[in-house]
């Protein structure tokens, strides 16, 4: 179990760190800080994807019951959200970094509301946090507590996990909508332009 835990802990730690960094992006009010944090987030995300893919590929190639095989079986739940991270989140983070870079030449340039709204988009933080959450059962199981072994514990554990994902999704959607409303121009601008 110790070998399996040694394999899973770095993977879970990287996903957790990426989720924490992504959650803090919308609070940054300076373009330079936003650009720097998106660089950190890109590095953590790529590292998490590489570690997860390495464990899964090595686990699929071996036919035994080694620590890597058990770790790969535990990370099976995190594979789907990690795929969403690879397809959606990386592209959004790259675009956000480029946008913040356009404003980051001066040290105290405020981050526009549009960039802050883009940093709060649910497809940035939510897949990272869901991947971190999906890695938790594998780590807990490797530590010796199998949550899904008994039906009396598996049902509540799955329900709590699903409710956690729903709460995270609603939180990110509300924060994104609030920041997107600030980025919208006042309504009077459109009526003046249309009248002209």
Layout of secondary structure:
Elements: H1 2-24, H2 31-61, H3 67-74, H4 76-103, H5 113-119, H6 122-142, H7 151-183, H8 187-195
Helix pairs in contact: 1-2, 1-3, 1-6, 2-3, 2-4, 3-6, 4-6, 5-7, 6-7
Structural class by sheet pairing and helices: mainly alpha
Strand content: under 5%
Number of domains: 1
Average pLDDT: 85
**H/E topology pattern:** HHHHHHHH
Largest sheet report: none
Gyration radius from CA atoms, angstroms: 20 Å
- The gross shape turns out to be elongated
Low-confidence stretches: none
Please explain how this structure is put together.
The protein has helices spanning 2-24, 31-61, 67-74, 76-103, 113-119, 122-142, 151-183, 187-195. With 196 residues, the protein is mainly alpha-helical. Helix 3 (67-74) packs across helix 6 and helix 5 (113-119) runs antiparallel to helix 7. The longest helix is centred in the C-terminal third of the chain and has 33 residues, at 151-183.
